[in-house]
Write a structure and sequence with these properties.
Length: 307
Amino acid sequence: MLDREAAWRSALYGPDGFFTRGERPSDHFRTAPLIGPELASALLELLARVDRALGSPPVVDFVDVGAGGGELAAAVRALATGSLGSRLQVTAVDVGPRVELPGVRWTSSVPSCIGLLVAHEWLDAIPCPVVRGPSDDPWLASWWPLEAGGWAEVGAPRDEAWTSAVAAVTGAALAIDYGHTIECRRPTLTGYRDGRQVEPVFDGSCDITAHVAFDSAAAAAGGDHVLISQRDALPALGLAGDVPPLSDPMAWLSATARAGRIAELRAVGGLGDFGWLLHATGPVRVADLLPPLPAWRPNPASFPGPR
């Protein structure tokens, strides 16, 4: 029987794996950092709130885990100004070949962080066991009870990775991803190649992902945390998408384009369905960072078809 976790890991991270040979997720599906600077702007505002709660340390970190081509890290570095910008250290974490970016340092493992760590579509690319039928796996018993013939993606490796990442942070850690909870589990293993969703094959020719069990990851890392939607988080961080009166045509055009990009980031059935799992650590509290917002609920419309 195929060990799907081992095959998945080899397909992505082996010697000839999808990521280790230099493929970028942005070449195969549309990611939020490529839409424009708005996501980076929102995360920079979140970092500013973390910085204030930490008392403005001499050096403050922005760590981009699963950075791919470093698009998000580069945008945050470019947008940061003033006191925060002068103290900001930006680190991109990835296992593949690196792109030299001004003001961005690279590493292959999650570093300690005083500031904000962001895992944007990282957890869904961590291989995990894919099993069928009843099992004595303790994770399944707690988080994905199986019926005969049913498939499940065991989230324990993601829980472990996220717990380790959160433990490295003084400030805040944020996972942004598609996901599900125990009330709405469904197998989601799928592949992406050249902008299209494809059957997941384990030969290194495509990106392979599966949705994140957010409730399990949240419980594993523990502490002060909140799980909200990207749709609700962005306005709370200043991305309202307002359009000024037409009396200023150039400002109107610019604001209209920006509003369109924000609308794409907040779209129901699209990127707005991303879950934001935010953990506050050290002296920082979630209440320092965000107002009360509705709890995230998975949208089955964003799930890929059965595989």
